[in-house]
Write a structure and sequence with these properties.
heterodimer; A: 244 residues; alpha/beta; Rossmann fold; four-stranded antiparallel β-sheet; globular; B: 293 residues; mainly alpha; ABC transporter involved in vitamin B12 uptake, BtuC; two-stranded antiparallel ribbon; 11 helices
């Protein structure tokens, strides 16, 4: 059975249909990719899954529960964590405190020893321990992305949504990212769903790729299948008439 | 020299009161980006509550503690009932609501307790200590101590508890916090509760010297504004440093600069406000707001 099932989700912004009857499934333990040209509705879908946006219709079933009926603050308790396209950390706090906020679901209001242990353990797993007491502001962008990853992982999610994990990273960092994503899937027993423009990363790391264009799903398959799909090529490169 | 030291201590005492109220303003400003104009009146209301408790036979410290609890509950209630419905409206709307709140609370105080001035007991004896020929009033030291202890406890709360951490997170980025399961609405309400507690401490410490009347905090609120702006409106440490230094500077000026005297104390505070806003709008410890377009 699929861990995540997006079932005919539609979301409109005024007259614009950002998502139109989008359906897809994600098997447990796999790495799924979500690609598409700018404005295709990829981040909107993530925002619907994490309840930042309401869906106008449809269902998002996670582990048998309809997430759209879950309160936004309960999504992470249900086992879904995410990172953001443009990194949403707390700049004036330390790295450890940032990760601790992510452990919020797992700790009691006062006396936060379990949370601290969990946070340190997660930083260790991402080799960020030396930075634990540094203030986030001023750290390099690639590091910020890893801290955000640690903050998502500390809640011990079953499903991790990564919004453009390679965005803004340099060539070398992108190379390491593929290995990192595979490693955390194994170590943290995760299912991963990622939005990405960096095609090499998507093709090398994903088990299955879903393609959106103008809010509609136009293709789905293994990376090789999707790459050869005429509809996908057309969406990215335009039709003959437009190209001419 | 002895008198100079004495003036500094009494300046610190009144500065501690400004600092507490300034910190209350900063607390709310950081989480909601608005200045709570009703902060002073909320403090006055709770101080009257303390007066009533003592008037009905309670002794000072139990009444003090109970008043803080009432202030906390009141602050939370005000946020939930009055501010929450306009939370997503433009900042100006919220500012107007807090001004409405100021007028409402002020009128309510007059309605319940009347407009005449009341004496308010001090928990500290009315005598002095002599330290190396410097005469220090116990009242001043006590006021300073209570205010600083409150600030210190609050700092510990924000620094070492999970709730405090969550409140800081909400102040920085409410959306990301919500996604991490932080109950953003309740954190904002808690912030109002804690700000009301700070105000109550300031009110109860100020009342023995300025006496209890419905507009007693009006002037103190202006000093607190000046202190908060001086320290940097988004900096808690700045509010404390700003409050203490403003208290000292104003006290020294009114003692040693003849034309300032007692009459020009308030305009001095306003002048500080103006100069800071012109020369260094982010204050001593605040952050420059950079808007990306």
């Amino acid at each position: 059975m699929a861990l995540l099932e997006v079932d005919q989700v539609t979301r409109r912004f005024g007259g614009i249909v950002a998502l139109s009857d989008v359906s897809l499934e994600l098997e447990e333990g796999t790495i799924g990719g979500l690609i598409g040209p700018n404005g295709a509705g990829k981040t909107t879908l993530f925002n619907v899954i994490t309840r930042m946006y309401k869906a106008d219709s449809g269902r998002v079933v996670f582990d048998g529960r309809n997430l759209l009926r879950v309160r936004p603050t309960r999504v992470i308790r249900a086992g879904v964590a995410r990172t953001f396209q443009n990194v949403a950390l707390f700049p004036s706090m330390t790295v450890l405190d940032n990760v601790l906020v992510g452990a919020h679901t797992r700790v009691r209001p006062f006396g936060d020893r379990t949370g601290k242990a969990l946070a340190r353990e997660t930083l260790e797993a991402l080799t960020l321990s030396p930075l634990a007491d540094r203030v986030v502001a001023g750290l390099p962008f690639g590091t910020l992305k890893q801290i955000e990853l640690a903050r998502a992982l500390v809640s011990r999610p079953r499903l991790l949504l990564l919004d453009e994990p390679a965005g803004g990273l340099n060539h070398e960092e992108v190379g390491e990212l593929g290995g990192l994503i595979r490693r955390i899937r194994k170590d943290f027993d995760l299912t991963v769903f990622l939005v990405e423009h960096h095609m090499n990363l998507v093709m090398s790391v994903c088990d299955r790729v879903h393609v959106l264009n103008f809010g509609q799903k136009i293709a789905e398959g293994t990376p090789a299948e999707v790459r050869a799909d005429p509809a996908v090529i057309q969406a990215y490169l335009g039709t003959d008439s437009a190209a001419a | 020299m002895a008198e100079f030291a004495q003036q500094i201590v009494s300046g610190l005492a009144s500065g501690a009161i400004y600092a507490s109220l300034a910190l209350a303003l900063v607390l709310i400003y950081r989480s909601t980006d608005v200045i709570n104009f009703a902060q002073g009146e909320m403090a006055t209301f709770t101080t009257y509550t303390a007066w009533s408790l003592m008037h009905h036979g309670m002794s000072y410290w139990p009444a003090f503690a109970l008043t803080l609890a009432i202030a906390f509950a009141g602050g939370v209630a005000v946020e939930r009932v009055v501010i929450r419905p306009v939370e997503r409206r433009p900042e100006l709307v919220i500012v107007i609501v807090t001004i409405g709140l100021l007028l409402t609370i002020n009128a309510t105080i007059g309605w319940i307790w009347g407009a005449d001035v009341k004496a308010f007991d001090s928990p500290f004896p009315n005598n002095t200590w002599d330290v190396h020929s410097v005469t220090i009033s116990v009242q001043d030291v006590g006021t300073l101590g209570v205010c600083l202890l409150t600030v210190f406890l609050l700092w510990g709360f924000f620094r070492f508890t999970t709730v405090g951490l969550a409140m800081r997170a909400v102040a920085i980025n409410p959306n990301a916090s919500r996604l991490l399961a932080v109950r953003v609405g309740w954190m904002l309400a808690l912030g109002w509760g804690l700000a009301a507690v700070l105000g109550a401490v300031a009110g109860m410490m100020a009342a023995p010297t300025v006496f209890l009347d419905p507009s007693m905090m009006l002037v103190i609120l202006i000093y607190a504004f000046a202190a908060a702006v001086l320290g940097g409106i988004d900096s808690p440490a700045g509010a404390v440093v700003g409050g203490l230094s403003l208290g000292v500077v104003i006290n020294l000026l009114s003692r040693y600069v003849n034309f300032v005297g007692t009459e020009l104390r308030l305009p001095t505070a306003l002048a500080v406000l103006l100069v800071v806003l012109i020369i260094r709008p982010q204050g001593l410890f605040g952050h420059k707001v950079v808007r990306r377009v």
